[in-house]
């Protein structure tokens, strides 16, 4: 049975080891653009991994990945160069509205609310300014572009001709109508950009067929037209993709998120190397934030509207910062207290899923209405209750009780801030 349906079975440890010995690695656009977003230590370690693989002729860049990289590169640079000041402006604008637009609110003490908001946001403002001081100037010296150019200088695929692209667009329309992966989740994108993922996929199949080598795809794409998901968590690449790669190119296919790829590499696969756990944690945190905020094509327009001062719901920014922090707290507890009773882990998992689903639903509008705020307030209250129960559990030692108490105070502060801003706005 497995011989006929092996794409539905996860790779065994032995199959993964064999795959890592022979596969060629393909890095999606978002994983390359994120090199601009990592701190310099993480960037240098990650780039060394790519250099080592390239030295063994084991990397490949589909031409479409290069097109998308250069299409988005300046936007990412511009976004991060100007975003610090605009983040502070957005926070100031939000605080200013409390003093002006809502100063005569009949049921809310706006003066007290402003004091609470300023106290809650003070740490965030200090962190933003700290990061701004350390941010590199990519316009003057772009070490990211230089490194990526060297790595993929001899392993970038050829572009499709116009006639080949027209054929793919026509095929894509037929595939999307039947929800054949990948790419059908991008049907709402304008024009030919909706076929970007499909073009990358077709170029990977053509390359694998020519080389007769299995492929490992490293991507930050979260959508279910790439991944088999269970309650929002990635299980493995879609069986349909593995099957198509096997039928068309005669080789195996696998995929990782960037952080999982680095973890596997760090185990010593293919000779491997040592990547600091802090670097992997940063890659994971950024990927999780992007899961919440949306993919590269979604992030860029939002960033431009934010940078150039177009109309944005101030609550959306407050919502985004707060929900990311709440999810981070849950992750810290999972990692720091793996031995807490299973009931707490289950409740934390449930809250985590709710927060992620809530954010994904809200992000498409770039605005947060009352419904989303109420749902977020409820999730924060439930999270605070769970943390309170953990603190009162006699099996938790004093050190971890103090740590959880700190998280509980922070969650309570977020709950109070979001609740008050919801009432005022």
Structural account:
With 425 residues, this protein is mostly helical. The chain is globular, with a radius of gyration of 23 Å. A hairpin with a 2-residue loop joins strand 4 and strand 5 (233-237). Helix 5 packs across helix 16. The protein is built from 16 helices and six strands.
What summary fits the major beta sheet? 4 strands, parallel
**Helical/strand content category:** mainly alpha
Helix content percent band: 55-70%
How much of the polypeptide forms β-strand, as a percent range? Answer: 5-15%
Going across the major beta sheet, what is the strand order? Answer: 2-1-3-6
- How big is the Rg? 23 Å
Task: Give the mean pLDDT.
Answer: 80
End-to-end separation in angstroms reads 59 Å
Low-confidence stretches: 297-312
The coarse overall form would be globular
- How many domain modules? 2
Number of strands: 6
Query: Please, how many helices?
Result: 16
The secondary-structure element order is: HEHHEHHHHHEEEHEHHHHHHH
């Amino acid at each position: 049975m497995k011989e006929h349906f092996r794409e539905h079975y996860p790779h065994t440890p032995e199959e993964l080891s064999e795959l890592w010995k022979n596969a060629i690695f393909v890095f999606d656009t978002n994983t390359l653009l994120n090199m601009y977003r990592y701190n310099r230590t993480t960037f240098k370690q990650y780039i060394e991994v790519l250099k080592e693989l390239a030295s063994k002729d084991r990397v490949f860049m589909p031409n479409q990945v290069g097109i998308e990289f250069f299409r988005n590169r300046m936007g990412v640079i511009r976004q991060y160069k100007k975003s610090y000041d605009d983040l502070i402006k957005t926070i100031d604008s939000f605080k200013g509205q409390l003093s002006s637009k809502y100063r005569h609110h009949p049921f809310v003490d706006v003066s007290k609310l402003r004091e609470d908001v300023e106290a809650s946001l003070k740490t965030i403002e200090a962190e933003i300014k700290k990061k701004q001081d350390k941010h590199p100037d990519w316009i003057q010296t772009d070490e990211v572009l230089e490194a990526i150019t060297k790595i993929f200088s001899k392993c970038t695929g050829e572009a499709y001709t116009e006639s080949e692209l027209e054929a793919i667009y026509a095929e894509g329309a037929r595939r999307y109508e039947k929800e054949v992966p990948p790419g059908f989740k991008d049907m709402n994108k304008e024009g030919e950009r909706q076929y970007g993922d499909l073009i990358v996929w077709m170029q990977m199949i053509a390359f694998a067929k020519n080389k007769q080598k299995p492929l490992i795809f490293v991507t930050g794409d979260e959508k279910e037209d790439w991944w088999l998901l269970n309650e929002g968590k990635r299980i493995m690449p879609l069986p349909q993709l593995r099957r198509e790669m096997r039928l068309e190119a005669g080789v195996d296919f696998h995929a990782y998120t960037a952080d999982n790829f680095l973890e596997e590499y760090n185990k010593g696969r293919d000779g491997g190397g040592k990547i600091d756990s802090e670097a992997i944690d940063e890659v994971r945190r950024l990927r999780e934030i992007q899961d919440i905020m949306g993919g590269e094509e979604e992030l860029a327009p939002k960033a431009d509207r934010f940078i150039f001062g177009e109309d944005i719901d101030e609550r959306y920014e407050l919502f985004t910062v707060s929900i990311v922090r709440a999810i981070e707290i849950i992750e810290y507890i999972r990692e720091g207290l793996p031995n807490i009773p299973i009931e707490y882990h289950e409740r934390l998992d449930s809250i985590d899923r709710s927060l992620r689903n809530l954010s994904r639903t809200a992000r498409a509008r770039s605005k947060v209405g009352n419904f989303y705020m109420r749902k977020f307030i409820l999730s924060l209250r439930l999270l605070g209750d769970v943390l309170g129960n953990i603190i009162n559990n006699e099996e938790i030692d004093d050190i971890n009780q103090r740590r959880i108490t700190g998280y509980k105070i922070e969650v309570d502060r977020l709950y109070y801030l979001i609740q008050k801003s919801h009432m005022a706005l």
